[in-house]
What we know:
Elements: H1 16-63, H2 68-101, H3 109-147, H4 152-174, H5 179-182, H6 185-190, H7 193-217, H8 219-227
Helix pairs in contact: 1-2, 2-3, 3-4, 3-8, 4-7
Amino acid sequence: MSSQNFSPIVQPKISHPVFLVRQSNYVLSRALQLNVSQGFLWTGTAVSLCFLVFRLVVKIRSFRRVYSDDCLVIFSWVLLLGSAALWQVQSVNLYELYAVESGQKPLTLGFIDTNTELLRSLTPFAILFYTCLWVIKLSFLLFFRRLGLNVRGQKIWWWTVLVITVLTWIATIADNDYKCSLEPIEFIWCMSEMIKEESELTHSQLTAALQSLSNLCGTPTLAIAQWT
């Protein structure tokens, strides 16, 4: 074989700048996903505020006042605003967690601090989110109570649904896996993925069941009773 046709040096098929381009594209994609996520977050919050203002304006013009169920809707929106603000801050840390898990960013001491902050925020976020939902359920109950419950059976059923609604809210908050949020970071990291997944699955199933129970016993049933 001629020496002119053979070279001991093998040229790389992919040059180093290509990796830089891929990494920069990933960073841009992650930043875009973060911006889109935050955009949807605040768009939904703004739209809900528009509906809330419209509701209050109609109530004030029609009845010259707001009622207790309106106050609960206002309180629910304040909780929604709090959860949105919390997500606005912690979403940056969440996408940084995705980058570290995918190997795009190294594990540093700064990441440990931000990850701890992210995990600590899961508990208040869950409380704000579920309380926001259940306050709306209570506002519906107060609305039907204001319409008038003149039949004794309707009054008994109203109080029964109120107790069920409050108990399902307490059960949902109590079932949250606080070990994955409030325990020391070393303990959380040492937990096996199977235990975490089983805990999240159990919590999701129980939460869905409790929401279905409160919805089934709540507004539709009271609407039928009120119509009757």
